[in-house]
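Bench notes, afternoon.
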Amino acid sequence: MSHQYNFISSDTHLEVLPERWTGRVPAKYRDKMPRTVAHPDGGDALYIEGAPLFQVAYLDLRAGRRSEDWQPFGVSVADFWYERHRHWAQRYLGFKPLQRKPSEYIRDHFLFSVQGPERVAIELRHHVGVDHIMFATDFPHIECEWPNTKPALDALTADLSSEETYKIVAGNVIDYFGLDPAILTKQSL
């Protein structure tokens, strides 16, 4: 049975410099696009309008991903590994301790994407929080579900409440990128 909702693909391709797409966006929106900026510590950071730079120097925001099924595990052990290694890293590498636990930074600054076959990520959604999961098609890559995106999304969200489905398929993307919710009622963009 097909659910009645519109969706937005988050397509979280952070492994690609955001400037790669600048020429494909209408000129009037280019100043609003994510872009790479110099971080005060001398490294690079990803700037998204309205969101603060994530100032954790060791984090590479352009890291790629394959499956989000591992995210609950990663979040659950981030604090453990940080505590285990922070002392020697501080002593020998000059690492400056974080002000908060790694899991707190993850929960405050990260959203994760899921697509068709990532059922386990949906089953474990409460470990990272439904507010931190966004649907992605990964189009045009070979692992995308197109042209069967809607049936794949229906199967992925079949056991979710309507509130959880809305958050994952559109609401979290709208909130994160500051989009107008009316975008869901427009026929073409």
